[in-house]
Amino acid sequence: MFALVLSRRRVKSERQTMPSRRVIAGVLHNFLGTFTSRNSDFGGYWLFGFLVSEAEPHVFDLLGEAAVDEASPAAVFAHRLAAQQFAEQMAKVGLPRDRIREACVVITRTRIGVINDCGRSCYELRFRADAVDDLSTAYERKVSILVAPHDPAIEGRSARWKS
Fold first, then answer.
1. Which pLDDT score, from 0 to 100, does residue 52 have?
2. Ramachandran quadrant class, 113 (left: phi over 0; alpha: psi -120 to 50; beta: rest)
3. Mean pLDDT of 57-62
4. Would residue 13 count as lying in a domain?
5. Would 93 be classed as within a structural domain?
6. From CA 62, how far away is CA 130, in angstroms rounded?
7. Which of 137, 155, 127, 154 is nearest to 51 (CA)?
8. How many domains is the chain partitioned into structurally?
9. Domain that holds residue 112
């Protein structure tokens, strides 16, 4: 009898619990925080300084591969980075891939004005992350950041970057 009780406890504690679907909103929130951070660099410079100069909007499938025919190397890199970071956020909470049917991030921009006294254009980039789960429930999270177009004469490379 004692062995039976121990084996039941062991089985119960070894069972993996599936995360609830409520974590999907958290995954989107954390993905946007990671993706838009200053650590998203391209060639040692902040990635979004390159994207803000391109035609808009950018729509990246977070579950698929980057298309080779995308606008620029920065856009292809951004797509791959977004998909990788979304997958990492799903893995952190133990959310299985089959729970998400669709997921994308849409990046749009609006012109704000000029930055300080240097006369550089400034844009607001708006990021919207959308996901649809296996039960057709839609989730959405948004964030906005201010970005100036990339200018290597003003910007310094990241210390993490190695040529």
1. 86
2. left
3. 92
4. no
5. yes
6. 9
7. 127
8. 1
9. 20-147
Instruction: Name the pLDDT band for 63 (thresholds 50, 70, 90).
Output: very high
Establish if 8 belongs to a structural domain: no
- Token readout for 74 is 């920065």
pLDDT at 143 > cutoff 50: yes
59 lies in a domain? yes
Give the strand pairing for 100-115 and 41-42. unpaired
Q: Report DSSP letters for 22-50, one per residue.
A: THHHHHHHHHHHHHTSTT-EETTEEHHHH
Task: Give the residue from 148, 150, 144, 143 showing the smallest Cα distance to 116.
Answer: 148
Q: Which amino acid is at 63?
A: L
Q: What is the per-residue pLDDT across 71-123, written as a single tens digit (0 to 9) for each?
A: 789 999 999 999 999 999 999 999 999 999 999 999 998 877 776 666 777 88
Distance set, CA 75 to CA 24, 54, 78, 79, 138 (Å)? 25, 9, 5, 6, 26
* DSSP helix/strand/coil, 67: coil
